[in-house]
Amino acid sequence: MRYAFVGLGHRAQMYVDALLGDWRDTGAIVALCDTNRTRMDYYVELIGEKVPCFAPDDFGAMLELCDAVVVATVDAAHARYVVEALDAGKRVIVEKPLTTDAEGCAAIAAAAERSPGSLVVTFNYRYSPRNSAVRRLIMDGAIGEVTSVHFEWTLDTIHGADYFRRWHRDKANSGGLLVHKSTHHFDLVNWWLAAAARSVYAQGDLRFYGADNARTRGLGTRPERGRGAPGLGADPFILDVAADPRLKRLYLDAEHEDGYLRDRDVFAEGVTIEDNMAVLVRYDNRALLTYSLNAHAPLEGYRVVFNGTRGRIELEVCERSWTPPRAAIDPSAAAKEHAAGFRERLTLQEHWREAREIPIERGDGAHGGGDRLLLDDVFRGPGDDPLARQAGYLDGIRGVMVGVCANESMRSGRPIRLADGGTRMAGH
Predict the structure, then answer these.
(1) How far apart (Å, rounded) are the C-alpha atoms in residues 70 and 314?
(2) Mean pLDDT value across residues 26-31
(3) Among 90, 87, 91, CA closest to 113
(4) When you count CB atoms within 10 A of the terminal residue's CB, does the N or C end of the chain come out lower?
(5) DSSP bridge pairs for 329
């Protein structure tokens, strides 16, 4: 299989590394496409041989060289490349979220229906052993029919803050965290329940990051960016992009081409996304979801509870128990704390029985070995998977549309109904 890549920032490297490493027998990288030549040069060096490099305007010419395309661009550009690649009959592998709005979802759905090609959305959380274990329990009827789900996700001031430095801080690029980040979570619920959202109501606000909040809390005048800032090395919110050789090559050394700043201050002007969000969803199987996302917590992790007609499942995950104050300056400090503070627990309590802990099998690598399982599915095929973890375009659309409807609900102040199995807003 001949693979081409469009979008060569941070997210592309997992797939590039796979094709250069344990999955090299499945295909070769034959072309690259990005808005920035410096970033393409970084990946050419990584690949170790000259491969053709294309500007976005020449994407069509690149498609003539490949059988499959990995799309890892800014979220708002996904739909353009996905549709063009599908129309060329290619196999498409796209980073989540599939796209950022209802129009993009409709365009991708139409292209997927008419195309001889195929599309995979890389929802790696499905492959994490703890999440797979939940799916298995629900499928086996351990708690009967699921009636409600409570899902709380906390992003800490390492991970959460980073969305407010990068292009994600502009909702026009990312759809906000309810699309960019929560698509993962909404997809998990859709998959766990084997159901589609029917109505969505949401509230959200920017309460911590952004210039107005900095002024309210008396933080004084903030720098536009980390590079050259007086607080670099002392302020835990100021990223030293030069301290990480990879970030330096991909972004600092590349910014002269397109002006993209990877180290914007989280309290600078220009933040248009929310950092606190609450969502209520009703599903077509009558289950209810209450969901919350906080992007400035002191710890990183999530808790999800399922109530059913026969009992209750609780999954609690702590991915980082506290935030080292030098995390933005020294990424290794965050990595060490991640290893030290990690814990996970899955509990099943059936009616009239004591609660019991369900063992979680962990593999090697990120997400408890889940990333390796995902890469196997992407590059070798899913095989016979009773958990149906590989996600297609309809799964991608259903995950996006919960976030899109949540954004519209926040804007309008009213609940939003979905139609056609959760793939479009009713009336659109």
Answers:
(1) 35
(2) 98
(3) 87
(4) C
(5) none
Closest CA relative to residue 250, chosen from 16, 4, 1: 16
**Which residue is listed with tokens 């008419």?**
114
**The pLDDT of residue 333 is above 60:** no
Q: 427's torsion region: left (phi>0), alpha (psi -120 to 50) or beta?
A: left
Cβ proximity of 108 and 134 under 8 Å: no
CB hemisphere CA count around 229 (13 angstroms): 25
Count of CB atoms within 10 A of residue 175's CB? 26
User: Rounded CA gap, 70 and 217, in Å?
Assistant: 43
- Taking only the tens place, the pLDDT of each residue in 125-143 is 999 999 999 999 999 999 9
Of 66, 19, 72, residue with least CA distance to 47: 19
Residue 254 identity (one-letter amino acid) = A
* CATH number assigned to the domain with residue range 125-208+271-425, chosen from the 4 options 3.90.1010.20, 3.30.360.10, 3.30.1240.10, 3.30.70.120: 3.30.360.10
**Per CATH, the architecture of 2-124 is what?**
3-Layer(aba) Sandwich (3.40)
